[in-house]
Write a structure and sequence with these properties.
Largest sheet: 3 strands, antiparallel
Strand order of the largest sheet: 3-9-10
Distance between the termini: 45 Å
Number of strands: 13
Length: 548
């Protein structure tokens, strides 16, 4: 159990309409001119603002399959139609999203998160309420807006609770971006500078500044009148502002990349990871065996019949099978080519050996066996398919089909948790990391910002590489070098799609997307996701994004 996550237990009970506290005499549907001073009530209400990020549609399965599978990292396969699920993993993998693809429906939860925040802000007395309490809620509300704007372009600017009968319109992407900037600049001075168990998973000054850095990094994209015109050379007027924000985080002295990459993503990660500026906490033991309590990333990444493999991928045989339908894009696996780089150990290819769960998932010499043979992952680029048009590798009853495609071992499961809590994982998932701040500053300088504090793109990249014992960069790296480094460092986090669009490489050829869906090369409007069908059905005054 992650002790620092205790406060989230209360959230689950509040949201589910149950209560284990007899002194919680607060109607959460009421409005107050003065906010109750009961600390339990305050904590529960504020935690509710962050709940939607942990849901299946927040940063759970729908996010991976709606957003992450669009990047050049992972792609979805199916087994004789199994897990095709009306194309929920196929369409993002080949850049052919539909308005009713499940992963497209993220907007609903983001809007729900914003609405809940607005309600709490109102109960706290509005934007002029107690600054120390209101500021984190405004920061997380800005983050929900950022996620919507980044994915969908023009989105509703929900800076207030709408009046009954009020028609909700979409605001231009540029105006939403400018509003997010103004909100963050307004609340940053009011946010806590602490970074400890009390602020873990909550917005503090550093979370808000990291979000502002993301906004500035992509400012040229968000200001473009037409997303189809964005290139790697699109001007960005905020580069020096970006460096200033990064420098403020750096000079705080609170964060460090540390030594040892893989351990940051183990099930026991948490507030002790000094690289994490802001992370989404998961712990099914205390939060429940649901998508708000745990995630299933490892289930979808791991050998499908792990429960029949000996001794099991984690040196422990689970009682339940995995899904095994997310495999590495070949071009992604090829990026992990630096000698001595610990990050290479996450890329599972060729003959497989068990990890030692009891000793920080060290790679052992014990073969991972399945039906008397060692599991041997093969490159999906060389695979034979039952139906390549749907990336269908064939029946999962055929042993070879289970081993098509390289896999990723970034978020290894705790075998006991996987078995006992509905195949859910307790690994916290980072959203903003200090390593990202360093590489962001490096990119800003490469793009023309004024260097500060003696930092160079190479020195900043080398600080990140020291964590995984990768070789140092010599000379001045190129922007492509920087993008490749981001691909290694932040694989399977949440930023690859965002990066590829900024670098003008979202349409580049990788995996099978441009073979199966050739028009993906030229449909530049796919840099925005379609507005979900449910939103269009409800908001009949909206116009669907171009091309959909």
């Amino acid at each position: 159990m992650k002790i620092n996550h205790f406060k989230y237990i209360l959230l689950s009970s509040v949201l589910l309409g149950t209560s284990a506290c007899t002194d919680l005499n607060t109607d959460i549907n009421s409005q107050y001119t003065k906010y109750p001073d009961n600390p339990i009530a305050v904590s529960a209400k504020l935690e509710g603002c962050y709940y939607y990020l942990r849901s299946e549609a927040g940063l759970g399965r729908n996010y991976w399959e709606g957003v992450m599978l669009q990047g050049d990292e992972l792609m979805g396969i199916c087994y004789s139609g199994g897990y095709y699920d009306n194309g929920r993993i196929f369409f993002p993998s080949v850049h052919d999203l539909k308005p009713d693809t499940p992963g497209v429906g993220l907007m609903s939860d983001m809007k729900s998160g914003i609405s809940y925040c607005n309600r709490i802000i109102l109960e706290l007395g509005g934007a002029d309420g107690t600054d120390a309490v209101v500021a984190p809620v405004r920061a997380i509300r800005a983050f929900y807006h950022f996620m919507m704007m980044d994915l969908y372009g023009d989105v509703p600017l929900m800076s207030h609770t709408p009046e009954e009968g009020e028609v909700i319109e979409r605001t231009s992407r540029a105006e939403v971006a400018k509003w997010i900037e103004s909100e963050l600049k307004a609340v940053i001075p009011q946010l806590s500078t602490d970074n400890n168990s009390d602020t873990y998973g909550r917005p503090n000054r550093w979370m808000a500044e990291a979000l502002l850095a993301k906004l500035y990094l992509n400012w040229g994209v968000y200001m473009a009148s037409d997303v189809k015109t964005v290139t790697n050379s699109t001007p960005n007027e905020k580069l020096n502002d970006l460096v200033a924000v990064c420098d403020d985080i750096i000079k705080s002295g609170i964060f460090e990349v540390g030594k040892g990459y893989r351990q940051k993503f183990f099930p026991n990660n948490g507030v002790q990871i000094k690289d994490f500026i802001y992370a989404m906490p998961f712990d099914p033991e205390t939060l429940g065996a649901n998508y708000s309590g745990g995630h299933e990333l490892d289930r979808f990444l791991t050998f499908k019949k792990a429960n029949q493999a000996e001794p099991g991928p984690w040196g422990f045989q689970p009682s339940k099978s995995c899904a095994g339908v997310y495999v590495l894009v070949p071009e992604c696996a090829a990026r992990f080519n630096l000698q001595g780089d610990e990050r290479n150990q996450m890329i599972l290819k060729g003959p497989q050996f068990a990890f030692d769960y009891a000793h920080n998932y060290a790679v052992t010499t014990t073969p991972l066996m399945f039906k008397g043979k060692q599991v041997n992952y093969t490159d999906i680029a060389t695979a034979t398919f039952k139906d390549k048009k749907t990336i269908d590798v064939g029946a999962d009853s055929e042993d070879d089909n289970l081993q098509k495609g390289y896999r990723l071992a970034k978020y290894p499961s705790s075998p006991e948790t996987y078995t006992n809590y509905g195949r859910k994982n307790g690994n916290d998932i980072p959203i903003f990391r200090y390593a990202d701040i360093l590489l962001t500053k490096a990119e800003a300088i490469l793009r023309g910002a004024t260097a500060t504090n003696g930092d160079t793109p190479a020195s900043l990249i080398n600080q990140v590489r020291d964590c995984s014992s990768a070789p140092h960069v010599a000379g001045t790296p190129s922007l492509q070098d920087l993008l490749d480094e981001r691909g290694r460092e932040f694989i399977c986090e949440m930023w690859r799609r965002n990066d590829l669009i900024r670098f003008g490489q979202f349409e580049k050829d990788w995996g099978f997307k441009n073979e199966i869906h050739p028009s993906a090369k030229t449909e530049l409007w796919r840099r925005l996701m379609p507005i979900p069908k449910g939103e269009m059905d409800t908001n009949t005054n909206w116009k669907q994004n171009e091309g959909y």
